[in-house]
Design goal:
- There is one protein chain.
- The protein is mainly alpha-helical.
- The protein contains 13 helices and no strands.
- The longest helix is centred in the last third of the chain and has 34 residues.
Length: about 260
């Protein structure tokens, strides 16, 4: 009975992809991907997702280290708040960003008034929205690795006079490098496929904020074949990322169990 139910679940997940493959215009695949707004949207998606990944690393690694190594009141609440964007609808996240960083937002009004910085409906706004939804994937991955890391080497280095920064740079980060790479790749893949928060906070302007997922959504009405091709590109990227990371973590887990 269990294998039968499991097989039904597999079919449930495979069928949508099979439907896309069945409807894909294979004879004009390259033309559909290289014409119209598709190349511009793909380029913008790649640029913004790389920036979002970089910001996730710069700010997410210190956050993961704090959550894993520092005891402070309300740490569980802070962890929940920092990973909340993983479970709330992306559109809700976009609305929250708009009221926080918009021109009349809690902080955005001062960014505009004091520094002339306007984030909504700009390319920078796309990066902010993608970072908001992508960074938690890096944080929880790196935090988990830091919690499992044997701290004896770090303690030994500190007793020999090494500074906290030296220990972090030369011992801690190299020790969690696989988790850092995995978290960065997951964050990049999530940023690349972001839709809801982006369209709510940054809008959909060709060449400025219209990323690949937004272009897929718009092309469904005007050119479904092109939408299918772009959707398959996003699915292929996500699939490769998940397969490669799954193999990495399964191998790591088996190695620890032994």
């Amino acid at each position: 009975m269990i294998p039968v139910l499991g097989s039904v679940a597999i079919i449930f997940f495979v069928l949508p992809l099979a439907g896309l493959l069945w409807k894909a215009p294979w004879s004009s695949l390259w033309m559909a991907l290289s014409t119209g707004e598709a190349p511009t949207a793909l380029k913008l998606s790649i640029i913004c997702s790389v920036w979002a990944t970089g910001l996730s690393i710069v700010f997410g690694v210190p956050l993961a280290w704090m959550l894993a190594r520092i005891e402070f009141p309300g740490r569980s609440i802070i962890r929940a708040l920092c990973t909340l964007s993983m479970v709330v609808p992306p559109v809700v996240g976009g609305i929250a960003l708009l009221y926080a960083l918009g021109r009349r937002g809690l902080v955005g009004q001062y960014l505009l008034r004091w520094f002339g910085i306007r984030l909504p409906f700009t390319t920078a706004g796309v990066v902010v929205a993608q970072t908001f939804v992508a960074m938690p994937f890096l944080v929880i991955t790196v935090e988990g690795a830091l919690r499992q890391l044997d701290q004896r080497f770090e303690d030994a280095a500190r007793t020999l006079g090494a500074s906290r920064w030296y220990v972090l740079r030369r011992i801690t980060l190299p020790s969690v490098r696989p988790a850092l790479i995995a978290g960065a790749v997951l964050a990049w893949a999530r940023a690349l496929g972001e839709f809801g928060a982006t369209i709510t906070f940054a809008g959909s302007f060709p060449g400025t904020t219209r990323t690949m997922p937004l272009e897929v959504y718009l092309q469904l009405d005007t050119d479904p074949k092109q939408a299918i091709v772009m959707a398959l590109v996003l699915i292929a990227v996500s699939f490769v990322v998940l397969v490669s990371l799954r193999d990495r973590w399964l191998g790591t887990a088996i190695g620890r169990d032994r």
